[in-house]
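Blinded run. Sample ID left blank on purpose so nobody reads anything into the name before looking at the predicted structure. Input follows.
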Amino acid sequence: MTSLTLFEPDPDEAVPATSSSGAAAPAEVASAEALESFRATTHKSLNFGLGVDSTALALAIMEDPTAFGVAKDFSDFSVVTAMTGFEFPDTIADVENYVLPLLREKGIRYTQVARAGRQDSAGVEVLSDTTNPGKVFSRGPWTLMDEMEENGTVPQYAGGHKCSQKHKAFPIESLQRQRSGGQTMGKLFGYNADEYKRAAKANKFQAERNKKAGYETFALDYPLLRLGWDREDVQGYVKDRLGVDMSKSYCPVCPFAGVCAPQPDHLKRLRKYPALAARVLRLEYLAMALNDNMSLYKEDTLFKRVTDDQNTDALGEFTERLEAETWAVYRLRRAYTPGRRPECKTAHGDRCAKPECRDTSIKGTVYRSVETVRAGSRAEADAFLRNAATALDRPVEHSTKAHGIGIDRVHTRVRPDPKTYGTVEDFYVSAPAGVRDKARDGFADVWAAMTAGQ
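Blinded prediction complete.
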């Protein structure tokens, strides 16, 4: 059984936080100064991600709140969850069955919040705010999958986990800033001892936000890191208290599923929920129809992994869904501008429009435009695409190279070399409907300039 032992730090030393490898976390992650700043706040909140790590932290706080700087009666403490709208059902069931009863028993305030719309200006919507929680509200007005399906993209590896920033950090921080009244709020994260790099990154971003705001908006603390609890410790602690093996919470569409959970465990969950798997398969196919490089994983597709796993239920639901739903013919145009030479950035600063400072071997900005040309049944979309090919005197290209079930396109402009920039592509493709017509700011001018005379 994992023991709970928190200690007061020596003010002249960093608080040690060891990982499973025995290495101490950097001082900036778990410093005595940071801990003092957190404990001085008049209100403290736990970012509860519904999974095993944050559950372990919630249980530890409920067992001994004063050890975490929380009032014994929890009067200065709350728990907050940002709902992405796409969680595994077993995660929601575990929280409802095992965690909510304890929050009710302790009278701890639990708030569930979500994005209210596509734009940040829409704000957030509070789905529940009570000391007597009985239900996990699995989605709000605007979900992560709403956004992915409307954009025709899967979450990206690059960009600093933008999906998490938009659908988790933004709703929680918007709510907390409203509640803080301009005062510093303490914020607890359930990063375990194997995740000190995540904590260091969170501290870096928080320092930037504090600088912009002109004061310390949030004081962060990572108790599991300071306790030195790795994943095995966390799972053991939760199992000991609740009698259940809780899975880590993550979105089924997450490209880091092999990190969030071992890949065999992830595939097992997809077998358990074939309809959910089919929705992710559908999104991946749509994204890859618009861009061959938009597979869910870097090296291969979810479709291949599910096929190799012989998940016939998920594949069957995926196929049935494609046949039954509305399809569209989209026109995709992309302009790949050349990037700036390194010496240009040194000599000319953040901005420079001189053509001589560009290098066609360096990737610049990609300007994309997507338009729905026709919508109908799958057969109608295929027929329209073939008629368009005849009218344009171009072939229908059926390719299974990127995706196993094949993608049909008609190109009017083809990039001569995918590693050369200062080029454009233009094609029509049939795929599931629902992608919003959209063009990047400045697309029309860039397209006109790059295709002039062609």
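Unblinding after everyone has recorded impressions. The chain has a mean pLDDT of 90.
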